[in-house]
Amino acid sequence: TLESLIAEARQAEQADDWQSAAQSYRSILRRQPEDVSAIVNLGNCHYQLGEYAVAIEVYRAAVQVRSDCSEAWYNLGNVLDATHQLDAAVSAFQTAIALASGRFEIHYNLALTYEKMGQRGSARGHWLIVIELSDDPHAQRTATVFLEAEGDLEC
């Protein structure tokens, strides 16, 4: 059943068995080809396996099915960043933010991408949002370090 395939996929993910999880998600997608959650999770499996080119294709398929899926845009941004396609990563993160502006992790990763590009001015606003939205100590500390390095935040 579909429920058992979902359970198998989740169990495989928890065991870091990304090949088996991917296989389960492909089985789900044979039954429900437009299940965006399954598409995104399949992309996550490929990302975890280091199969970045495949992950990019899968996340792009997800946003073709549902262009308002912030998780697909966010994950696409992450894999584009990991493959040094920074301009495309920025675009994907910006789309994710337009769909879900309250998610600090999107702002965090966009700020990191801007930092990699040497665009500290663009990163600054996102670091400030991270500090405002996040209750994650690591994220707040990282944002603070970057802002202090620019003289934008004084202790």
Report on this structure.
With 155 residues, this protein is an all-alpha fold. It contains nine helices and no strands. Helix 4 (52-65) packs antiparallel against helix 5 (70-82). The N and C termini lie far apart (57 Å). The relative contact order is 0.08. The mean pLDDT is 95.
Short structural description:
Helices cover 78% and strands 0% of the residues. The protein is mainly alpha-helical. The mean pLDDT is 95.
Which helices and strands occur, and which strands form pairs?
Elements: H1 2-14, H2 18-31, H3 36-48, H4 52-65, H5 70-82, H6 86-99, H7 104-116, H8 120-133, H9 137-149
For this entry, give a set of tags.
mainly alpha; single chain; 155 residues; elongated; 78% helix; 9 helices
Low-confidence stretches: none
Report the end-to-end length measured between terminal Cα atoms: 57 Å
Radius of gyration: 17 Å
Gross morphology: elongated
What letter string, H or E per element, gives the SSE order? HHHHHHHHH
**What's the number of extended β-strand segments?**
0
Structure classification: mainly alpha
The profile of the biggest β sheet is: none
- Strand content range: under 5%
Mean pLDDT over all positions: 95
